[in-house]
Design a protein that fits this description.
By secondary structure, the chain is of the alpha+beta class. It is about 40% helix and about 20% strand. The protein has 15 helices and 17 strands. The strands form four sheets. Strands 1, 2, 6, 7, 8, 11, 12, 13, 14 and 15 form a ten-stranded mixed beta sheet that branches. A three-stranded antiparallel beta sheet has the order 5-4-16, with no helix packed on it. The structure holds adenosine-5'-diphosphate, magnesium ion and zinc ion. The site of zinc ion has 8 residues, from loops.
């Protein structure tokens, strides 16, 4: 049977604020355990939360960047559960009234609708070592946004493209650093199967996927598991599962909790979050050009192919680098090729845009050939010297001066009377031999195009 895969993602992104969501503690990663803590994030009795305005700014920025409607009034709520990394016994999140709703992310031909983007705080961390479990509360109270999609994603590959696009957008807008090793970006995948035209199937939620590879492998495993189950006449149980990258499988963690299990209620220690139009417009005005728009512009204005454009907008740094080289060299296509094939290999900071632009212009005006250009590039990457100086130092400059080439061609013609006769007698293929002799005469440094036309002119004139 043709089971159709249905996926909805819940992505958690740590906001790039200096301090926590409801207190002044630092959010810096990697500090010694329990040094960035205070009565608020340690949940001392009587300590009260104070909202971080910058976190609201950043959450709104991502909301607006993805076409959401920012709600003028949203509400924090307590999500109650017990876990040793959660000192208050509840997480402050948003439930019935999220900060942003609607919106969509376009990935190629496909549009994934967003359900909501809301603000919440992170929990602490448990460290399990030598048979003991220790609690580090540095992360407790760190601001997060959760970006919840509609179940519009149809495959593991699509899920990973969507997640990647979100990461790009979060990094372009400087809402999140996108660092998945440090846990700045994690995702839960909801996966179900159904037959086309039928209601959606029962879903399974796979928690805490922190790499693109794990996300797609977990989904692939889950699709296969559910397919076998359904084909065998079984039923999918709604539950939360964990992915084990070593065994490449998902395993049940707990049965799915329902919203009412969390006893959500409005957070009594905080006022409703109110934003006004001027604030929203101020945030909107600060949003930079986003990857999808930039890619479209690179295709439209600079003539790049969709594949080239997508690679060049991977990050803002790469896109900025490309634009500089394209503008300075006047040759976007060549700039794109050099960056894709060579600059990304050696790193963006190795060769400055003006140096690469100069190299491209030297090729374009025939000062150096393609092989010499590659050699100069590698030299530039290690020496940082200007391409003209390298060409000079290594004797790689190409001769394009027709006068010098003509003199050499005349010598070649004088020495090869037989072949010249043959050519003039109509044996066109001898031309290649004569060009070869000319290149040899010029020790390989003649500009091939000029050499060809000068020689032809002399033979036919
Ligand atoms: P909960 O509040 O229990 O987390 P939601 O209804 O808010 O559940 O949905 C959470 C995520 O699950 C959303 O991203 C949504 O798109 C996705 N989802 C909902 N139903 C399905 C389904 N049948 N198959 C796959 N994903 C689903
Ligand atoms: Mg959820
Ligand atoms: Zn604190």
């Amino acid at each position: 049977m043709a089971w159709e895969t249905v996926i909805g993602l819940e992505v958690h992104a740590r906001l790039l604020t200096e301090s926590k969501m409801f207190c002044g503690c630092s959010t810096a990663f990697g500090a010694p355990p329990n040094t960035h803590v205070c009565p608020v994030c340690l949940a001392y009795p009587g300590a009260l939360p104070v909202m971080n305005r910058r976190a609201v700014d950043l959450a709104m920025r991502m909301g607006l960047a993805s076409g959401c409607e920012v709600q003028l009034r949203s509400q924090f709520a307590r999500k109650n559960y017990f876990y040793p990394d959660l000192p208050k016994g509840y997480q402050i999140s948003q439930f019935e009234r999220p900060l942003a709703t609607g919106g969509q992310i376009v990935i190629g031909e496909k549009t994934v609708r967003l359900r909501r983007i809301h603000l919440e705080e992170d929990a602490g961390k448990l460290i399990h070592e030598s048979g003991r479990s220790l609690v580090d509360l540095n992360r407790s109270g760190t601001p997060l946004i959760e970006i919840v999609s509609e179940p519009d994603i149809g495959s593991a590959a699509e899920a990973s493209t969507y997640f990647n696009r979100l990461r790009q957008m979060l990094m372009y807008t400087e809402v999140c650093d996108g660092n998945m090793e440090e846990g700045s970006l994690r995702c839960d995948a909801n996966v179900s199967l159904h037959l086309r035209g039928n209601p959606l199937g029962t879903r399974v939620e796979i928690k805490n996927l922190n790499s693109f590879r794990f996300l797609s492998r977990a989904i692939e495993f889950e699709v296969e598991r559910q397919t076998k189950l359904l084909e065998g006449g079984g039923k999918v149980v709604q539950e939360t599962r964990l992915f084990d990258p070593n065994k490449n499988e998902t395993r049940p963690m707990r049965t799915k909790e329902e919203a009412h299990d969390y006893r959500y209620f409005p957070e009594p220690d905080l006022f409703a979050l109110e934003v006004d139009r001027p604030w929203i417009e101020k945030v909107r005005a600060a949003i930079p050009e986003l990857p999808a728009t930039r890619s479209a512009r690179f295709q439209r204005e600079l003539g790049l192919t969709p594949v080239d454009a997508e690679i060049l907008v991977t990050s803002r740094e790469i896109a900025d680098y490309f634009e500089k080289v394209a503008r300075l060299s006047g040759n976007p296509k060549s700039a794109s090729n050099w960056i894709r094939n060579d600059v990304l290999r050696v790193g963006l900071t190795t060769i400055t845009p003006p140096l690469l632009a100069t190299l491209i212009q030297m090729i374009d005006r025939g000062a150096i050939g393609g092989k010499a250009a590659k050699e100069i590039f590698e030299d530039m990457a290690s020496s940082g010297e200007e391409p003209e100086r390298i060409a000079e130092r290594k004797g790689l400059a190409q001769v394009s001066d027709p006068g010098a080439i003509r003199e050499a061609a005349q010598r070649v013609i004088a020495r090869n009377e037989t072949q010249v006769e043959q050519y003039r007698g109509g044996k066109a293929q001898v031309f290649g031999f004569l060009v070869g002799q000319l290149m040899k005469e010029m020790r390989g440094k003649a500009n091939a195009e000029v050499a060809n036309s000068v020689l032809r002119e002399l033979l036919e004139g």
